[in-house]
Amino acid sequence: MSAQPVFTNITQHAQGAALPENYQKEQSLKALDFGCGIGRQSILVGEFGIKAYGIDISQNALSMAELQAQSHRKSKHFIRPQFCLYDGQHIPFSDNFFDFSISYGVLDSLPFALALNLVQEIARVSKEYIFVSLIGAESTHGFSNLNTSYFTDEIQVQEAHEKGTIQSFFDRAKIERLFASTGFSIIWLHKRISTNELDSTIEESRYYVVLKRDKAHKKARTQGGA
After folding, report:
1. At what angle do helices 40-47 and 4-15 cross, to 10 degrees?
2. Distance between CA 214 and CA 179 in Å, rounded?
3. Is residue 139 within 8 Å of 202, Cβ to Cβ?
4. pLDDT digits (tens, 9 = 90+) for 182-221
5. Name one GO molecular function term (predicted).
6. CA 127 to chain centre
7. Per-residue DSSP letters for 86-152?
């Protein structure tokens, strides 16, 4: 499913309320695409006239992302993304470097304990907003080692194309736990469920979440020199 309709929601926030008072029109917003893969979301960000920085642990994926960006049919406002490798633990940018960050279908492909650590890093480098997409608890269809219609834990995927990887499933409570200690609060939470009209099977459920930095936490970071 395309991210553009829901991504537009956060770019409207970022291009409006998230702008600092001394913002100049010739400046470009900066966005982190965490776990960018082959760069689809980074390129989409660039179409909004925003400078995207895509990071990933896979050099092969980043090489493909560079090729995608080079061959992309550019619009008038397009800003080419920048891609870089990271170590899977520490985001190689300073505190508050990005106006906002996105992570599309990445944090749900990690053990929850690791995701808890990484959202702290995402929060550290994000000034104002975070946008994430997470697979929902009803998305059990197609996983051979699940025989339930609702699941909120994590499994090791058995299917060939992602065999051996982790899939973590989310409900609202688990999403709230994920971001509880980040200094960000959920301001928009939408769950979209895709069903097979022939037999009413749920093929996928997915959450789209927008978070905003808490004012008290923002003030504390500013006073602390962050």
Report:
1. 50
2. 12
3. yes
4. 999 999 999 999 999 999 999 999 999 999 999 876 656 6
5. S-adenosylmethionine-dependent methyltransferase activity
6. 15
7. --SS--SS-TT-EEEEEEES-GGGS-HHHHHHHHHHHHHHEEEEEEEEEEBTTTTTT-TT---S---
Query: Which secondary-structure segment (H or E) carries 210?
Result: strand 202-213
Band (pLDDT 50/70/90 cuts) for residue 143 is very high
Nearest Cα residue to 101 out of 42, 144, 189 = 42
**For residue 196, what are the domain limits?**
105-125+132-219
HSE of 99 in the Cβ direction (CA atoms, 13 Å)?
22
**What is the C-alpha separation between 73 and 78, in angstroms, rounded?**
9
The H or E element containing residue 217 is helix 215-223
Residue 7, classified by CB atoms within 10 Å of its CB into exposed (0-12), middle (13-18) or buried (19+), is buried
Strand partners, 208: 133, 190
pLDDT, one tens digit per residue, over 26-54 is 568 999 999 999 999 999 999 999 999 99
CB burial of residue 173 (10 Å; 0-12, 13-18, 19+): exposed
CATH no. for residue 44?
A: 3.40.50.150
Do residues 46 and 117 share a domain?
no
Q: What's the DSSP call for residue 170? A: B
CA angle at residue 4 from 34 to 122, to 5 degrees? 20
pTM for the complete prediction? 0.85
Which is nearest to 169 in space by CA: 197, 199, 195, 146? 146
In a domain, 81, yes or no: yes
12 token code pair: 């409207």
